[in-house]
Amino acid sequence: MFRSTCLFCWSAPVFYTVTATVAIDANHTVGDDHVDCGHRWTVTVETREFFDLSKGRLLPAYDLQSNLFELLLPLRHRSLNEMIPAVTPLPEGLATWVAEQLALRFPDLTTVTVEASYGTHVTLHRELRRSGGLV
Ligand SMILES: [Zn+2]
């Protein structure tokens, strides 16, 4: 049996990791000794996207950056505690919130990494089924 080496003839589907990063400056308060403290929060999200040969490009990969920007823009120069009060105002809380907000639009969202300017970064990982979405 002839087996082509053509990228689009492989039996396994080909997918790409698409990455978007947005940074905002925002304050947070943690406890009594870390009040109204400002940081740059750099949020990087990754999705697994299958190549749509009929359309000739990754869909909806190009929406990822704009959706992340629109999500984070209202937090810019504001207090995380006030803007998203149900969220722990730390990198892990912000990562969880971003994943929850983007998961419906991007079911193949795999990771959310949040880096705070005080040197801490965390990465949230989501398990995906082969066909997409949560396990
Ligand atoms: Zn701080």
Task: Explain briefly what this protein structure is.
21% of the residues lie in helices and 33% in strands. The protein has 135 residues and is α+β, with helices and mostly antiparallel strands. It starts with 14 loop residues before the first strand and ends in a 10-residue tail after the last strand.
Number of distinct helices:
3
Q: State the share of residues found in helices, binned by percent.
A: 10-25%
Chain-averaged pLDDT: 85
As for the number of domains, it is 1
**Cofactors and ligands:** zinc ion
Q: Any guess at the CATH architecture?
A: 2-Layer Sandwich
Task: Kindly report how far apart the N and C termini lie.
Answer: 35 Å
Question: Can you describe what's shown?
Answer:
With 135 residues, this protein is an alpha+beta fold. It has one domain: 2-Layer Sandwich (Tetrahydropterin Synthase, Chain A), CATH 3.30.479. It is 21% helix and 33% strand. The chain has helices at 61-72, 80-83, 91-103; strands at residues 15-28, 37-52, 57-58, 109-116, 121-125. Strands 1, 2, 3, 4 and 5 form a 5-stranded antiparallel beta sheet that branches. Residues 28, 34, 37, 39, 118 line the site of zinc ion (ZN).
